[in-house]
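Consider the following assembly input.
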Amino acid sequence: MRLTAYGPSGLVEKEGATVDAFRASLADPTREVTWLDVDGVGDAALLEAIGQAAGLHRLTLADIANTNQRAKVEDYGSYLYVVLRSPGKTSGNGRIVDCEQISLCLGPRFVISFQEEHKPGDCYGEVRTRLRQERAPLRSAGPDALLHALMDASIDAFFPLLEEIGERLEALEDRSAVAMGPGTIRELHDLRRELITVRRAAWPLRDATGALIREQSPLIREGTRLYLRDAYDHLVQVMDLVETSRELATGLIEMHLSLASFKLNEVMKVLTIITTVFIPLSFIAGIYGMNFDTSHPANMPETRWDYGYPIVLGMMLAIATAMMWAFWRKGWLGSRDS
Amino acid sequence: MRLTAYGPSGLVEKEGATVDAFRASLADPTREVTWLDVDGVGDAALLEAIGQAAGLHRLTLADIANTNQRAKVEDYGSYLYVVLRSPGKTSGNGRIVDCEQISLCLGPRFVISFQEEHKPGDCYGEVRTRLRQERAPLRSAGPDALLHALMDASIDAFFPLLEEIGERLEALEDRSAVAMGPGTIRELHDLRRELITVRRAAWPLRDATGALIREQSPLIREGTRLYLRDAYDHLVQVMDLVETSRELATGLIEMHLSLASFKLNEVMKVLTIITTVFIPLSFIAGIYGMNFDTSHPANMPETRWDYGYPIVLGMMLAIATAMMWAFWRKGWLGSRDS
Amino acid sequence: MRLTAYGPSGLVEKEGATVDAFRASLADPTREVTWLDVDGVGDAALLEAIGQAAGLHRLTLADIANTNQRAKVEDYGSYLYVVLRSPGKTSGNGRIVDCEQISLCLGPRFVISFQEEHKPGDCYGEVRTRLRQERAPLRSAGPDALLHALMDASIDAFFPLLEEIGERLEALEDRSAVAMGPGTIRELHDLRRELITVRRAAWPLRDATGALIREQSPLIREGTRLYLRDAYDHLVQVMDLVETSRELATGLIEMHLSLASFKLNEVMKVLTIITTVFIPLSFIAGIYGMNFDTSHPANMPETRWDYGYPIVLGMMLAIATAMMWAFWRKGWLGSRDS
Amino acid sequence: MRLTAYGPSGLVEKEGATVDAFRASLADPTREVTWLDVDGVGDAALLEAIGQAAGLHRLTLADIANTNQRAKVEDYGSYLYVVLRSPGKTSGNGRIVDCEQISLCLGPRFVISFQEEHKPGDCYGEVRTRLRQERAPLRSAGPDALLHALMDASIDAFFPLLEEIGERLEALEDRSAVAMGPGTIRELHDLRRELITVRRAAWPLRDATGALIREQSPLIREGTRLYLRDAYDHLVQVMDLVETSRELATGLIEMHLSLASFKLNEVMKVLTIITTVFIPLSFIAGIYGMNFDTSHPANMPETRWDYGYPIVLGMMLAIATAMMWAFWRKGWLGSRDS
Amino acid sequence: MRLTAYGPSGLVEKEGATVDAFRASLADPTREVTWLDVDGVGDAALLEAIGQAAGLHRLTLADIANTNQRAKVEDYGSYLYVVLRSPGKTSGNGRIVDCEQISLCLGPRFVISFQEEHKPGDCYGEVRTRLRQERAPLRSAGPDALLHALMDASIDAFFPLLEEIGERLEALEDRSAVAMGPGTIRELHDLRRELITVRRAAWPLRDATGALIREQSPLIREGTRLYLRDAYDHLVQVMDLVETSRELATGLIEMHLSLASFKLNEVMKVLTIITTVFIPLSFIAGIYGMNFDTSHPANMPETRWDYGYPIVLGMMLAIATAMMWAFWRKGWLGSRDS
């Protein structure tokens, strides 16, 4: 737990704060905004204590603890409860490990943020840096501006991920022009799964942010509303990128299927032409390879002709030529575009 | 039929209750809430009797008896009628046997619940346990809180089922990376059928719950509305999980088709290369296996050459090399990604 | 034309009624409701006469005569005009012959129903039976209750059809687990066509019924509105069944395509393995079957070796083993799930 | 340009009218409605002159001249501007040559219609015939009734086209039951293109007509609104037919793909069975066709056995039987449904 | 930066203007409209200076600098901020290089336009030409008319691009009737990507323009609203063309897949017929090519018969005829439509 309290007179930061320190900070009139940042939501007793100190409803505490919530905004009268999902750290192989659930409670004088687990380098580092600056506009604004800053930091975490996905898509497109093997197919499949994950996180967040703008909660001041509209625009952009990436991925798969069916046809044509030309010729050679007793005049008289061999060879050539002509007529030998 | 009546003064439970006991309980002013739990809806006379005791409309009774209703909420003025479908027991092989229809009637002082059939261990066990606790908040709340508790128990029954489906999907994904046979395909098909069933049950229930929240029925108090919103959120989560699972299943099938077309191309290339290289060679061997009478000088003179045999072998090697070169040019021998 | 007039004092039924009888019945104050049931809409003069007697608009008469209308409800002030489509008789092979258009006009004291053609055993038999009962609630209710009864009878005619489609789908699913031939594919195609037909009939009817409930026409009394809501629920259920059946049919076709591509791969693997193993061996046998003159020492010296034959056989065995090993390495011989 | 002016006192028709004649007709109080029908929109000066005479806005004139508009209705206060697209003449091979743009301007005392080009036998012939009748209701109705008549004539031109498409679809379905070649595939593709064209024309027209009904323009009288609702219903029917045809065409293509994959499997099975049975047998025959020097005892001793030939033949029979048994076990020889 | 200031008294144009010149122009009451056209948005200090001079909000400046915005319209009270994306120059091979972001700020007396980069021949050339004409209506209209003129020029830039795409689609359709190779498939894929890009640019622009029409901003006068509605219609037309092109492209791909599966079946039939007929015959020839010692009476007695050879040849003919008959029965030799 990290406590950050600030007002016009100054800023106090405290790592490893207790609930009592939070209570004291709320009671201190010189500290206009108190931000309690909780890492980990597994300690039910701690949640209960924070809930009592800040006046949170039982249902809110249950939602904070259950980390499978969809993004939403709920107005409990005395405070606003915001749930959102932010892309966590991406693992070494580029997959999303998890979309972390972040719960934010905005009261008249406080903001409480709950992150799923403690991580070095979370997405709120930049907000803390801005708060520490003496004359930052954020410092003189109210808790609603802090709420916006935290939401905006979570939303901006989507963009590097989507850029990376976009780059992987382009690499796949380049590669698929040459050949598309099982590796490419599986990578495309993984990429679509990630897009589903991002969309699941961003879509309800967009609706929730839209509701936050429309709802006339007294906790959100008019000036902050303009900034929330900006956050909303960012989410619309995230969704736009996700949808475009999905369409590109689907297009790649369809192109692959079309190309595969084309290549199969090409392979089969080669096989069919070669087989169809040589099988009848081999059959004729087989005929004259039979060991019938040629002392009987009716048995294989051709083999005793003076020019039997050249005649048979000529016949074979004629058959092969006729076959090739038939294939040419069917257009199987025609030139194709590359 | 199980009768549970409670008020601030205490709780009375009675298995195998009669309609008269229900009437008496309604008339007793010390019992604030009377919950009649009916297992089985096949006895028309019993339904009629309950309907008269509680003042239910003829259409409500018809809907209770016909167990193919979609989830809905109907306001009959003096009472609210809620139909919902809850996943029944899953059979041994993991398939949903049936989605059971549950009808709930909420009057000013009673709740009547109709389950399709009597089962040991239904989803209301936990509600009964909570009611039996002396100081449970549910006990001092009105019948609308009981209605919410019953609906919530039915909705929560979806989650274990969806988790199981999610685990099966992951197992399928792992397996499909190795090979995808008819067993995997059929299991995916079964899984999609189950998802259709869950969606059919959950979708109208979500709309009905939403309507229950919006409609300003005097039977629902303001405090309960907050809890119903929570139940609504759970249903949105169910739908979200169903849609995600459906997309994953569709993605798996598409990946399978892409991989199958890739593998078919690979198999066909091997077949074509081998066949195309050896068939012309076999034909040449067949030529020189013919039994033409070599006493005629025009017949197979090559067989009488001193070095006929090495020359023919060399010619075969040249043809095979040329063929392989042609295939290499077409890129059929190129390295592929794995 | 069948005329049925009733009121508290009694019921009069008349087959083959004339327009004059209809006029007379309308004028008789003891007959509260007059129901004129017209079979066949081809007689323009008759339609005109009925239209004048009941005060129908020219556009209404045109819509009645043109039997390609979509379901709709139109309020002409003095009367309501309802068009709906009901599944006609299904022919011997289970196909829908036609969805019959039924037009209903509800006036303050009359209901006129137009069916496309005269059929023994139409879906209104049950309504007539109810009317003939002395103390039926329908008899003492107004013409709007009769309108609802006729609409409900038409809607209920969808359910046996959908049940039959559901049974056929299940039979197809069972069959497709064994094998899926052109017969199964064509039956699935027919089934989807029928579902399109049912949906085309039911969808606009649902919207029209919804409009009938919302519109505050004085011709529909408050009590009947509740029954119309019930009819609306039935139509929602019809649409729900249609959509589920469509999804199941689509799923079956996709499963079939996946299975077919899997089976093709299996067949091709067998062909490729057998061909690839034996073609090189046959080529070697062909080599030693050539008839080169072995008196020349360079020609086929192997055939004159003491152990040439066993050496060649051993070589063939070695090649076959190497080939099988290569296939095993590619995983083509691996076990698959069934 | 054709000028048709009428009122209670009579009707004046004039081919090749001028703008001055139009102005004069507008000024004549005995002519209640003046209809100016302009063929061809390429003459900018003429358009300008008409625009000044009728008080049309500059944007309206630009839209009339640019014949790529989507259907729309615009209320310019003093007049209504309606654009619609109507199927032009279908060419000899059944394709739509073009969907002609028709612009209609409805003023308080005039209707101006602009057709793209002059054609004998346009769809307004029937409207002219009705106007010429002495006691036609259209003659005594205002210009809004004429607008409806012209729109209705344009909309009704869709139906013969859709009927023809429906008949072609049925013919294709009959043919596809036998065989589906490239001709059938291409015809289906053409048919879907035509449906896209019709939908593009009808969809915005439906929305525009709906807007015309809702908007309370004083130029449309209450009685005409009822007729416009009828035209709207016709457009809904057109869209319904288009959607149904599209679904049928898609179903046909999917059926074709399923059947093709089934037939491919059948063909491949036959090929594989024949090849797999005979290739090993041919290999054995090849073995004993080798010319090893049988004076060496280790070389091909079987050929010198007394019963070597029958033994080898028996061995071949045994191998063939084992192969067929294996195929039978795999179900490849099983009966299939036809 | 280009400054264009005009009023009833005249027009002043200045290339390479400074922010001070802009300020001065705003202060000059004789210049009713000042248009500042900025090429390039990379100079943060310049943006800051312009923002201060025109009173732009910090968020507006951030959006101008970040060139990945979706099209939108934002009302900041004292000015309107419009973002739109316009197709940039198409490169030599017909691909869209980039959709350029254009930001427009409309104040009570100024319009500022920001283009991403400086290009000769941008789409505003025509607007400048119109402004230079002495008696152009645009010159006497306010800044909102100039905003419309700039938006309209950006929107009209979509049409040549879409026409080019349409022509390429038609060329592809013509080519695909002959043959469809990897080149055609890849071109279709590229074309669909371009359509996605255009749609991404046009869709939000349409919504933004619609919002601009609905919102009653005092900066937009009533007369200009009519022109904005015209721009909106153009965007609807763009979307319509995009959707139609997408459907045509999808239809082409589906036709290709159907044709490919048909051709594959044809190829496989030829292969199977030839192989199946000749393989058994070759086997028989192989049998009689074996070198069994015919001095043993049981070994190959047929070879010593007087008419062994003609009998075997006759047997082969019988087998071939039977095979062909079987294929004819299966319909593989039947005529097909072309």
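The first strand of chain A starts at residue 2 and ends at 7. Ask yourself how this observation constrains the way the partners meet.
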